[in-house]
Design a protein that fits this description.
globular; Aconitase, domain 3; five-stranded parallel β-sheet; 19% strand; 31% helix; alpha/beta; 20 strands; 14 helices; iron
Length: 428
């Protein structure tokens, strides 16, 4: 898939791994943490009156620092946001920032598909490592640096060294309550954080065929934790339905040829997979939850581009209905977008979260990037439905952060320890 997408994007009949090509970018995305530095490099190198190559193909999002000022006023964050808005206004590109005073539109990797910016066959570049999320829609989508994005703004293309592809065939019947987060953590435990470095992870199999779009997004989202440039899933009826519902009707689907060759093929039968947990300090320190032992917690977090989608909130609501979080535990829930929040409210999830004692925050990256409420304090232990648990990633460097699915995080908040089993504690 990756080779065919890059061949089309570069105007070649075919490309091979190791070859360097310039590809035309269909969509460029940046956010409030990086857009201002990109704009500065853009003007420095292309002139003070330079214009982006196509404003309709540039999307800027306020999500990384949107929660910072809930804790304290941060002049740097405010300045970065203001400069991004100024650039968007002067260039006429898309700006997704607030839907009402103090209420952000959402996290870029959930927001762009939701708003119809993403469809199969695209080449997408973003100044964020989790841009690989859009590979779930059959796009070659990857993160780039500040200088590369400044060039994309001006020229509409980027250089890519064609990556080799690893194929992951996921078969079997997934046990009840096992999710995409468990699957990608399992894969991380098998291949490690550098197991796909500079490569593409392509997912297929009976498990993928039955997986809803939001779960596929989780799988592709965390391909970067394996070091991959992109996590690709071939478009099918599930993809078409989602994309058409978001307002896209015309797009080209590209899939792998039946005789395509891969650098390596991994085949996993996931019929007996149990919930997976990543221990600190790396996302690949993964074990089955039955092997974890008793880990008391003080904080739990359900949110981010990985764990704040409607599917994720549904998992949490099912657990928390008619239950209370444990004494001494703080549970933070962050819908990934304003639209997700609205849907969750209509479904009654917000009332369940409030009754359970959880704190629901405004949409944004928040504690996942050590910003705003929900970060871990000194010596605290938490379990998070986010994507990374490096030292200091979501709070104090002395804290310990475990990664798990939204369901496990919700159960753990009720039980007061990392668990996938509900006792009678918290019922009432």
């Amino acid at each position: 898939m990756a080779e065919k997408l890059l061949a089309r994007g570069s105007g070649n009949a075919y490309v091979q791994p190791g070859e360097t090509v310039f590809v035309k970018v269909d969509l460029a995305m940046s956010h409030d943490a990086v857009a201002a530095p990109v704009a500065e490099v853009f003007y420095q190198n292309f002139g003070e009156v330079a214009k982006v190559w196509d404003p309709n193909r540039v999307v800027l999002v306020a999500d990384h620092f949107i929660q910072v000022n809930e804790v304290r006023v941060d002049p740097k964050a405010t300045s970065l946001y203001s400069k991004m808005v100024e650039f968007a206004d002067s260039q006429g590109c898309h700006l997704l920032d607030v839907v009402s005073p103090g209420e952000a539109a959402g996290i870029c990797h959930v927001l762009l598909p939701e708003k119809g910016f993403i469809h199969p066959g695209m080449i997408v570049a973003g100044t964020d490592s989790h841009t690989c999320t859009y590979g779930a829609f059959g796009c070659f989508s990857t993160g780039v640096g500040t200088t590369d994005m400044a060039n994309i703004f001006a020229m509409g293309d980027m250089w890519v060294r064609v990556p080799p592809t690893l194929l992951f065939k996921l078969e079997g019947t997934l046990p009840k309550y096992i999710t995409a987060k468990d699957i990608i953590l399992f894969i991380l435990g098998k291949i490690g954080c550098d197991g796909a470095a500079g490569k593409v992870m392509e997912f297929r199999g009976s498990i993928i065929d039955k997986m809803p779009m939001e779960e596929r997004m989780t799988l592709s989202n965390m391909a970067i934790e394996c070091g991959a440039m992109c996590g690709l899933i071939a478009p099918d009826e599930t993809t078409r339905q989602y994309v058409q519902n978001s307002g896209q009707d015309l797009f080209e689907e590209i899939g792998s040829d039946p005789d395509a060759s891969y650098e390596e093929i991994y085949q996993f039968d996931l019929s007996d997979l149990e919930p997976q947990v990543a221990r600190p300090p790396k996302p690949d320190c993964v074990i089955g939850i039955s092997q974890l032992g008793e880990i008391p917690i003080t904080k739990a977090f359900i949110g981010s581009c990985t764990g704040g989608k409607l599917f994720d909130l549904a998992q949490a609501a099912e657990v928390l209905e008619n239950r209370r979080i444990a004494r001494g535990v703080s549970l933070f829930i962050v819908p990934a977008s304003f639209e997700v929040r609205q849907k969750a409210e209509k479904l009654g999830y917000m009332q369940i979260f409030e009754a359970a004692g959880a704190t629901v925050l405004k949409s944004g990256c928040g504690a996942c990037i050590n910003a705003g409420l929900g970060i871990l304090g000194k010596e605290e232990t938490g379990v998070y439905a986010t994507n990374r648990n490096f030292k200091g990633r979501s709070g104090d460097p002395t804290a310990k952060n475990y990664l798990a699915s939204p369901r496990v995080v919700a159960i753990s908040a009720v039980e007061g320890k990392i668990s996938d089993r509900l006792s009678n504690v918290g019922v009432g």
